[in-house]
């Protein structure tokens, strides 16, 4: 069997177009003409030996082979970028103080921060897991360099809005909605003040759905344990969920839909140090992958 050597430049164009939702946007981002991007996609399909995209209305969507190709392309590009950073980025030194929501602790700590630490061993990273109010207060006062936080309508002086994630009702895995309609809906929530707790109760009140707080936790781990045990439903995004719970799609539940929630990357300073800038770039890139998956 003939070995195929995929062109990393072509793979980067392919991935960028999927993550931006448009190959016209990808051509602008990558500084290439639309004809050059089309030629690269044709080359990729020739190398793959099968179509990776198909027409859907006015746009293009992934084929089954394209979905497989996307997963491998991301892995190849991440390894390539990690190798480049390791060879050219060892001169980076310093200190980065990062704040995260609990939702992103597992995925980001094991992926982004692992790659960052391997590529820049002389940079010391300190991470604080906290809720929105504390993250914003710490980055504004300069006690954090970066903070990845939900958009609560309060902006810091230096902030980039990364995108949005749908809000979903969360139940035990495989449980659906087991509570009778004539009984108050049991809610499993974080301690107040909590923006998602407020959003859930306000939406239920508007829909005239009776509810009660069945379980209150100071952490997401406690929340997921209570939901998995069948004590009630919660409200969160589909990101970072353990396998013991599930996000209900709108057609699976009579509960009111809640739209989406923005995610922001806050910086303590307009001109950050090189280590802070590098980590901010990795976080933004990781977010693109998470948002596509969500």
TrEMBL record:
Domain annotation HTH lysR-type: ranges: 6-63
Source organism superkingdom: Bacteria
Gene3D superfamilies cross-referenced by the UniProt entry: Periplasmic binding protein-like II, Winged helix-like DNA-binding domain superfamily/Winged helix DNA-binding domain
Keyword Nucleus annotated: no
Classification via InterPro entries: LTTR, LysR_HTH_N, LysR_subst-bd, WH-like_DNA-bd_sf, WH_DNA-bd_sf
GO molecular function, one term: DNA-binding transcription factor activity
Keyword Transcription regulation: yes
Similarity annotation: Belongs to the LysR transcriptional regulatory family.
Protein name: LysR family transcriptional regulator
Taxonomic lineage: Bacteria, Pseudomonadati, Pseudomonadota, Gammaproteobacteria, Lysobacterales
């Amino acid at each position: 069997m003939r070995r195929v050597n995929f062109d990393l430049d072509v793979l980067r164009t392919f991935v960028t177009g999927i993550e931006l939702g448009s190959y016209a946007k990808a051509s602008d981002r990558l500084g290439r003409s639309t004809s050059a991007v089309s030629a690269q996609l044709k080359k990729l399909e020739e190398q793959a030996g099968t179509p990776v995209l198909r027409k859907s209305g006015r746009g293009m969507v992934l084929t089954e082979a394209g979905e497989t190709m996307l997963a491998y392309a991301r892995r190849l590009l991440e390894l390539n970028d990690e190798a480049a950073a390791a060879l050219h980025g060892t001169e980076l030194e310093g200190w980065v103080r990062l704040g995260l929501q609990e939702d992103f602790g597992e995925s980001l700590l094991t992926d982004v921060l692992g790659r960052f630490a391997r590529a820049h061993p002389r940079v010391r990273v300190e991470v604080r897991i906290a809720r929105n109010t504390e993250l914003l207060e710490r980055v504004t006062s300069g006690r954090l360099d970066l903070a990845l936080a939900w958009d609560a309508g309060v902006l810091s002086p230096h902030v980039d809005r990364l995108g949005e994630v749908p809000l979903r009702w969360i139940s035990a895995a495989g449980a659906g909605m087991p509570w009778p309609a004539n009984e108050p809906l049991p809610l499993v929530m974080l301690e107040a003040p909590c923006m998602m707790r407020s959003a859930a109760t306000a939406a239920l009140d508007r829909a005239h759905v009776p509810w009660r707080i069945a379980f209150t936790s100071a952490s997401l781990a406690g929340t997921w344990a209570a939901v998995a045990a069948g004590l009630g439903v919660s409200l969160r995004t589909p990101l970072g969920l353990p396998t013991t719970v599930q996000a209900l799609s709108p057609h699976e539940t009579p509960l009111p839909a809640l739209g989406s929630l923005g995610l922001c990357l806050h910086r303590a300073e307009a001109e950050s140090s090189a280590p802070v800038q590098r980590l901010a770039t990795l976080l933004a890139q990781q977010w693109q992958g998470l948002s596509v998956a969500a």
